[in-house]
Design brief:
The chain is α+β, with helices and mostly antiparallel strands and about 80 residues long. Helix content is about 45%, strand content about 20%. The protein contains three helices and two strands. It has a two-stranded parallel sheet. The longest helix is centred in the middle third of the chain and has 20 residues. The protein is flat, with a radius of gyration of 14 Å. It starts with a helix and ends with a helix. The model has no long low-confidence stretch (mean pLDDT about 85).
């Protein structure tokens, strides 16, 4: 997710859904082991909503992973 999408889908006011954002720095050059472990757990949580959400609330929560080194993530970190 780039900065433009982040502004539009996450920071926009008045949207009819919630967004849970996890910021990471998973590149090996960053040396953040906990980032990789936490991202795996975050992915498991996001996938689990497929099995626990009802039809009426399925599209009410979105999970977004923003990595510092991907898709200009450093710009999102700075906002």
């Amino acid at each position: 997710m780039g900065q433009k999408d982040f502004e539009e889908y996450v920071r926009q006011k008045g949207k009819e859904y919630s967004t849970l954002v996890m910021f990471t720095a998973q590149s090996p050059s960053r040396g953040c082991q906990i980032c990789t472990e936490a991202a795996e757990e975050f992915s498991t949580l996001a996938k689990s909503t497929r099995y626990t959400a009802t039809e009426s609330n399925y599209a009410s929560m979105f999970f977004v992973l923003v990595d510092y080194d991907e898709h200009d993530g450093h710009r999102i970190f700075d906002t």
